[in-house]
Q: What sequence folds into this?
């Protein structure tokens, strides 16, 4: 189907350019990118169509007239009947040819199906994309907010790779600063004397350190001197105090070991970890170089600054907007570190595009960062992208880690897993599903990831655990159920030695509307992959998955498969079921929804 849309775009572009030439009009050459092709709302008028409104002013003609002229030029070059329907150029596709083409592609390209464009080339050939995501602090475990970040980063990375890009996943570990010292101080006050460790207390390391952070917050409310104690500890850390550094390393290791277990559990991985403790001083050299070149300037108070008015506008006082890059005492600020880290990363792995997955609260920061890197003359700075995302909360309100009201990622997944396990038990399906606990874990991950990814990243959202676990509707478990149902059909067919038809054979007998609708949508998978990759938007993929699941359900209801009386129809519908399962499994993996062949 995507091939037919591409062909139509190409033919219309050629036809419009011919009209421009024939009418002696001076105009830029029309390309495929200028042509919009969409599904027709009424199958009687065609399967796909393209509006001609956009060319009316250029060609000095009414859109219906342009449609007639374009049709006359392309009608003998298309697969199907070409019609001028008002201002639209529509095509009624030759369904038999289209079905054979799509099912053949799915079978022949296998796991590469979806990765290639109409010319057989990867969508993002030559693209080297670095993706930064997660960025945990070593004073607490991962929480629900991190889960949205991790799901977005991992899913977008998989989609980019599916689209043919080289992908390099990185993670900046925030392992220094006053917040880290607060957990360290609480450990010294309440645990060091007892020799407490995560092992001795029987809890994960990141949970234990997070507990210390909460203990500090409670302690500081009754002991105002606590903040000064933490600040003094930070000064000692920066001075390299051996005792402070040893405690810092020990508690960092506890947290990172625990966080890694959560990454392993959720299917998240990285190609390289960067640590703030190693990067926070980098970038100063670049600031000094920029100062020498006149890109930056020294303010009256001795600080080094850059004028960012061009990118963020005037300040609230109406004055030019200045960003401090080095304090008057010469120490770096957070953006200084980010400048150095970006340059170091490009030195490590020469990307031509980089995506930062960071909450929308940091939009201003990244506008300024990208602007500074451009001013410094790095050509790759033109391809830096901030994938910002909104807050995620539970129905009972916003979370605060220092007050201990955060929902830890592990606890949330455990809760979802237990609910899924109870549902399996209530239905008496422990034996049918195999390892019920393992299945429940995969259902929990499907519920969590799909729910977080189905919303456009820029939107704030409420995560509703009960809704996410539903086996009906737009959820991860529903997709798993649909995959398991198709797998069951194919198993029964194999056990009964029922042959699966070829694409050519299937095209001759798949004549029902429900069959055509499903095949047509399967054919759009490559275009969906490309769109999701170009927009860094996993919600494009989740919407597609739900469409496929609904269309298969409708097909299954209206078109008996194993119960079909005609053997050729039975074999053809098995071919369609097999093709659907292939695409479903592939796309589910892109949005971190585990596939289950039994449920």
A:
């Amino acid at each position: 189907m995507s091939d037919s849309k591409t062909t139509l775009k190409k033919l219309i572009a050629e036809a419009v350019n011919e009209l421009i030439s024939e009418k002696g009009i001076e105009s830029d050459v029309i390309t495929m990118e200028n042509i919009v092709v969409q599904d027709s709302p009424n199958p009687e008028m065609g399967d796909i169509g393209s509006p001609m409104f956009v060319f009316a002013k250029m060609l000095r003609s009414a859109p219906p007239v342009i449609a007639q002229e374009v049709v006359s030029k392309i009608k003998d070059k298309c697969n199907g009947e070409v019609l001028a329907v008002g201002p639209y150029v529509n095509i009624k596709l030759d369904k038999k040819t289209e079905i054979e083409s799509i099912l053949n592609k799915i079978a022949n390209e296998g796991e590469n199906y979806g990765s290639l464009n109409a010319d057989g080339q990867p969508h993002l050939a030559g693209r080297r994309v670095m993706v930064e995501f997660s960025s945990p602090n070593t004073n607490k475990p991962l929480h629900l907010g991190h889960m949205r970040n991790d799901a977005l980063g991992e899913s977008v990375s998989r989609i980019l790779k599916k689209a043919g890009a080289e992908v390099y996943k990185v993670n900046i570990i925030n392992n220094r600063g006053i917040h880290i010292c607060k957990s360290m101080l609480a450990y010294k006050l309440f645990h060091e004397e007892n020799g407490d460790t995560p092992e001795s207390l029987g809890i994960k390391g990141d949970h234990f350190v997070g507990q210390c952070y909460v203990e500090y917050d409670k302690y500081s409310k009754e002991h105002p001197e606590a903040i000064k104690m933490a600040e003094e500890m930070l000064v000692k850390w920066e001075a390299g105090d051996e005792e402070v550094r040893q405690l810092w390393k020990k508690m960092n290791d506890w947290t990172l070991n625990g966080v890694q277990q959560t990454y392993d559990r959720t299917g998240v991985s990285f190609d390289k970890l960067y640590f703030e403790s190693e990067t926070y001083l980098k970038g100063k050299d670049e600031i000094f170089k920029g100062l020498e070149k006149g890109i930056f300037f020294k303010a009256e108070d001795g600080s080094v600054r850059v004028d960012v008015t061009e990118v963020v506008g005037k300040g609230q006082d109406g004055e030019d907007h200045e960003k401090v890059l080095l304090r008057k005492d010469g120490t770096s600020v957070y953006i200084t570190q980010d400048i150095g880290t970006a340059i170091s990363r490009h030195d490590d792995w020469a990307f031509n595009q980089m995506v930062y997955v960071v909450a929308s609260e940091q939009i201003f920061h990244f506008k300024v960062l990208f602007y500074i890197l451009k001013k410094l003359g790095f050509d790759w700075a033109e391809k830096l992208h901030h994938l910002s995302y909104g807050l995620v909360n539970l129905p009972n309100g916003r979370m605060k880690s220092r007050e201990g009201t955060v929902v830890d990622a592990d606890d949330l997944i455990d809760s979802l897993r237990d609910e899924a396990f109870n549902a399996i038990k209530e239905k008496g399906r422990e034996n049918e599903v195999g390892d019920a606990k393992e299945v429940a874990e995969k259902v929990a991950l499907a519920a969590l990831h799909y729910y977080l990814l189905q919303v456009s990243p820029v939107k704030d959202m409420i995560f509703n655990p009960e809704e996410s676990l539903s086996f009906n509707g737009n959820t991860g478990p529903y997709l798993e159920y649909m995959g398991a149902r198709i797998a069951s059909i194919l198993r029964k067919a194999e056990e009964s030695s029922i042959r699966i038809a070829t694409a050519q054979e299937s095209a001759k007998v798949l004549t029902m509307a429900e069959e055509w609708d499903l095949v047509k949508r399967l054919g759009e998978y490559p275009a969906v992959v490309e769109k999701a990759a170009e927009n860094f938007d996993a919600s494009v993929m989740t919407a597609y998955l739900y469409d496929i699941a609904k269309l298969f359900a409708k097909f299954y209801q209206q078109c008996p498969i194993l119960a079909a009386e005609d053997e050729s129809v039975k074999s053809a519908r098995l071919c369609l079921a097999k093709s659907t399962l292939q695409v479903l499994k592939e796309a589910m993996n892109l949005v971190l929804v585990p596939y289950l062949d039994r449920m």
Observations:
- The radius of gyration is 29 Å.
- The longest helix spans residues 242-266.
